[in-house]
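Sanity check record (used in CI):
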Amino acid sequence: MKIYLMVAAVGALAACQPVVPDSAAGVGNPGRGVGFNTTTATAVPAAPGVSSQPLGGTAPATTSSANGSFDPDLLAASLDEDERAAAANSGREVVNASPSNPAPAAVSNPGISDENDFDAVAARQTIASDKARIAENRAQYEVVQPTALPSRSDAGGPNVVEYALQTRHPRGTKIHPRLGFGGQSKMARNCAVYTNDDEAQTDFLARGGPKRDRKGLDPDGDGYACGWDPTPYRRAAAN
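Expected output for Excalibur calcium-binding domain-containing protein:
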C-alpha cells in the first residue's frame, strides 16, 4: 500500500512540472515554443554563393550561378513584384563590382576647353592658320586720334579746381586783409550750412572772394574758405 501511494505522488509531481520547449521548436514551427515568432520563418545569413535557408521554412531562390559568381537573372527571379518594379524604375542598370569589369567609357564634355590638348589644337590649327588669324585681327584695329578737350563754360560759376591750380601759397598764409571781430566763431556758424568744403569755397568765390569775404568764411585771409585745402588738386595735376 505504501509503495502504491509513493508511485502516485511521484506521478502527480511529474504532471505539475512545466514543459521545457524543444531547442528547435518555435523557429519555423508555428504554435510551439515561448518568445519566438510563430508565424514568420527566420533566415540565416549566408556567405556569397551559398543560398540562404530559413530554419523551418522554404529556401529562397539562389542569386549565384554554379561557379559561385553573381547572376542578376537569378536575383531578379528571387525578387517579388514590388521589388522588381523598384529596380526597373531606377533608370540604371545594376553594375556589380568585379575586377573583370571593363573600364568605363570616357564621355567627352563639349563645355570643357581643349586648348591644353596639343593633339586637339594641332588637328585644327597650323602656323599658316595662326598667321591668317593674326592678320585678320590686325585689320580690325581702329586707331582713335585724340582730340582737344572741350572748353569749360563759365555759366556754372567758379571752379575750385582751376582756382587751386592758379594759387601757390599754403593754407594759413595771409594774402587778403580781413576786418571784424569774432572771426572764428562767425566762420564756424556760417560754414555749418555747407555740405562740404568744396561747396563753401565755390560760394565764397561766387560772392567776390578771395578779395572780399561777405560771410566771414575766410577770417585768416588766405583765400581758402572754411578750411578748404587746394593741395589734393595740385597733386593730381602734377601727376
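The mean pLDDT is 74. If this sentence no longer matches the regenerated C-alpha cells, the check is flagged for review.
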